[in-house]
């Protein structure tokens, strides 16, 4: 009897992970997935078990699920994010950029860093080493007007966007205020900017009181210098020579950065983090070099990685690769930090928190990958990737919600 009980316990442990056959059967019964390419991977967390699922070694378009790799790349590169290089001489602060994106950002604060810089009467900006393009491969050229495609730059400031607020007295406030901005009541767009110039026009009649609009500006080193001077209200001089004998100011808000990437899916911050990873190894601000470091840390030659945010349609990854990446993140962070930086419960309401994950959406592609805690007390990493669908996105989201509830109850 005792031997039988031990055998039963061993068998139940071996087969506790939900089977690929059950997942395949669930997919075949779901009408919302008939017109889609579906790949699903699931694995019990921190257990030496195989990945279950359907088509989990199929390369798929990940969209913003790529941000999972960018965060993992930062963790494997030391989980220390350098904000600036600096050197102090009396009342002068010499700095050089690291690609860090939180200075004067309209949505995110780094008060410690800004207070430190503001404490000096004069700032000398040293030219950093850069290997950077403003846009990634296969980014849509006509999306330059949207917040989600703000330009990459060596030292992002104000999030590389202007903030336009229509106040309740109908006045328009623009931050920063160094650019030419005119009103044009005849234009059809709320805000318009020439493609290559920082000449903005606004139609206030199309903006509701209390609304806030973010619109990217054209970046350059000169613009960066002007904005630094405006924000810190001190003189800024420029130095071509490389900053030497410097110290590193490391960010004290690492989880705030990871949260901006994973919860808010901020593309510029994710791209900037990829460039920052490069700086840690190559002393060069470079998204491309950062991506190579991320790929080397994953030891997976099937991943095709073209940016750090997922805007590029050239990116390809298997659900099984995302599952292993998520497991590595868990090993670095543990469940408490996971729950802090990942959004919870997808679109599911009316239930206690049980799933934390990252969405990824491009037209006709929607994915969701993360961590799920089941009713049986088990923990899983998973990746659900649904590409090339023609049905409404809401139906795809409904299918994913059904799957998450199914795993919660049955795994």
In short:
The protein is α+β, with helices and mostly antiparallel strands and 411 residues long. The chain has 2 domains: 15-62 and 317-410, Beta-lactamase (3-Layer(aba) Sandwich), CATH 3.40.710.10; 82-289, no CATH class. The chain has 10 helices and 16 strands.
Please give a structural write-up.
The chain has 411 residues and is α+β, with helices and mostly antiparallel strands. It has 2 domains: 142 residues, DD-peptidase/beta-lactamase superfamily (Beta-lactamase); 208 residues, no CATH class. Strands 2-1-16-15-14 form a 5-stranded antiparallel sheet. A 5-stranded mixed sheet has the order 12-5-4-3-13, with helices on one face. Helix 3 crosses helix 9. The longest helix is centred in the last third of the chain and has 23 residues. The radius of gyration is 24 Å and the shape is globular. The chain starts with a helix and ends with a helix. The N terminus is likely disordered.
Helical content stands at 25-40%
Termini Cα gap: 27 Å
Tally of structural domains = 2
* Main structural class: alpha+beta
- Annotation field: number of helices: 10
Unreliable spans are: 1-16
Largest sheet: 5 strands, antiparallel
Strand order of the largest sheet: 2-1-16-15-14
How many extended strands?
A: 16
Radius of gyration: 24 Å
Q: Which descriptor suits the 3D outline?
A: globular
Instruction: Estimate the strand proportion.
Output: 15-25%
